[in-house]
Amino acid sequence: MLLRSYRKEVIRPECRPEAESLHIIAHLDQDIAEVIPYLNAVLGGFQFIKDPVSVSFKLHGKLIAIHGRKICVNALRDEAEGDKIVEWLRQEINDTWERRAEIQPSFESAPKPKVIEILRLLPKTNCRECGQPT
């Protein structure tokens, strides 16, 4: 078992004190940096940073960032939702660590779409229904 314990910090967004959502930061008592490339492969992270190692991904509208010594989760309804997500992540971290011999680690971020690829998806009718020319 790689991650055995953590301390939880519940905060409100500083940039929006009126916001009703919460953020949770789990301060990890064990360093999990070695498992992060494997988590990137298993959970499909969209942003992987090599130094210092971290991975970010979205889950049910939440932005989750996993670092060597902390896990950050935003846009939570309440503390109980955050507890469920952090506990699920703890299980995923430990399961991934146990299975690391069978997993090819990923040190890459998901590819970002190019502007031309996005433009090709537009209807090209210049209907202006969205208020913008296409």
Question: What features would you highlight for this structure?
Answer:
134 residues; alpha+beta; TATA-Binding Protein; six-stranded antiparallel β-sheet; 26% helix; flat
Describe the structure.
By secondary structure, the protein is α+β, with helices and mostly antiparallel strands. The chain contains three helices and six strands. The protein has a six-stranded antiparallel beta sheet with strand order 1-2-6-5-4-3, covered by helices on one side. The chain is flat and about 55 Å long. 21% of the residues are buried.
Break the fold down into its secondary structure elements and pairings.
Blueprint: E1 6-11, E2 22-28, H1 36-43, E3 47-50, E4 53-59, E5 62-67, E6 70-76, H2 79-98, H3 115-121
Antiparallel strand pairs: 1-2, 2-6, 3-4, 4-5, 5-6
What's the tally of helices? 3
| Proportion of strand residues | 25-35%
Report the C-alpha radius of gyration, rounded: 18 Å
Helix content: 25-40%
Structural class: alpha+beta
Mind describing the biggest β-sheet?
6 strands, antiparallel
Residue windows where pLDDT falls under 50 for at least 5 positions: none
State the strand order across the main sheet: 1-2-6-5-4-3
Q: Under the CATH scheme, which class?
A: Alpha Beta
Q: Output the CATH topology.
A: TATA-Binding Protein
Question: What is the approximate shape?
Answer: flat
What is the level-2 CATH architecture name? 2-Layer Sandwich
Count of individual beta strands? 6
Please give the alpha-carbon distance between the first and last residues.
53 Å
> Which H/E pattern describes the elements?
EEHEEEEHH
The residue-averaged pLDDT reads 90
Provide the number of structural domains. Answer: 1
